[in-house]
Amino acid sequence: MEASIRSVEYDRPHGLTCGVGEAWAKVPDAPSVERKRELKEQIRALLKREKAVLVAHYYVDAELQELADETGGCVADSLEMARFGRDHAADTLVVAGVRFMGETAKILSPEKRVLMPDLDATCSLDLGCPADEFSAFCDAHPDRTVVVYANTSAAVKARADWMVTSSIGLEIVADLHARGEKILWAPDRHLGGYIQKKTGADMLLWQGSCLVHDEFKGIELDLLRAQYPDAKILVHPESPEAVVALADVVGSTTQLIDAAVRLDAKRFIVATDLGILHKMRLAAPGKTFIEAPTAGNSATCKSCAHCPWMAMNGLANLAEVLERGHNEIFVDPEIGARARLPIDRMLDFAARHKKRVQASGDLAKDGALFSNVGAA
Ligand code: 13P
Ligand code: SF4
Q: Where along this sequence does the record place binding of iminosuccinate (predicted)?
């Protein structure tokens, strides 16, 4: 395999982007109990007034997840968020998540108004893959099929043949590999490495990473496993190889929640953003969830298993954005139309894949779910 790779530091804010320090500084303080109640009332009324629906990711605050659920919105992984926003009849989508999720919603529904509580909520993978540098990388490898992760800008998607999320990336790359295609993958090196290993595909990897998952430590996880030998280990594939190697299940956020419900274990160690624990506890009551370790003794971390950009979504800025209609996502129509092609390809593939799985009745083939269960 070629050794040539490209990497861009995500922690260096460039242009108008919001780096890790700025993100933590913008995380809103938790309102008082009384203020929370008022804000929730206000948001419910505003969603109705604006004919809007709330589309939230599992990593945002539990209060926002609850509001999305109770008002007919959705709480989901990035693939389901994209599908839900596209198919919903609402005039306005309010995306509680990070910028690439809002952009994907706008690309799929250019006629809808897409709002976000804070437009500075970005992602280290998106920041680490600037469109101009990525485009030059693609130009240098014209023989490769370009597959990008959802966690990228609209301009990067516009340069791609395929977009994938963590719930369907493995299947799509396996299919491309079976057709003899060589892959240029960006930006997450851990997810790319995991897919490469599972499929045997020829993949050239951009060297980006998620600052949350990159901090999980294999050695510390192994020690925790020894402490709880009965626990099953659930890992998001943005985590380093040493962490994935210890997993019982590797999968997208939805697939990890499904595993927590379906697996016959009482205790789970979870290596992904701790925002997911809210849904896991609701979906699997009576089971115990333990956060995977992010650092060794006396070490520091930038995220401590919580994404600072996801944390920028709060009740107050959600109410404000609905009231004032500001923080609208715009995508250049030409870029949007081009970026839609790889997204539609993925959604079509995912729909065909789901039908095949349902017809076979083999849930083990449902995405990456249970992919490591029973592995040596
Ligand atoms: P999912 O597609 O699994 O929801 O992941 C999105 C993400 O940003 C994970 O860090
Ligand atoms: Fe990006 Fe990681 Fe935050 Fe997900 S958790 S939005 S991949 S930085």
A: 57, 78, 149-151, 166, 236-238, 253
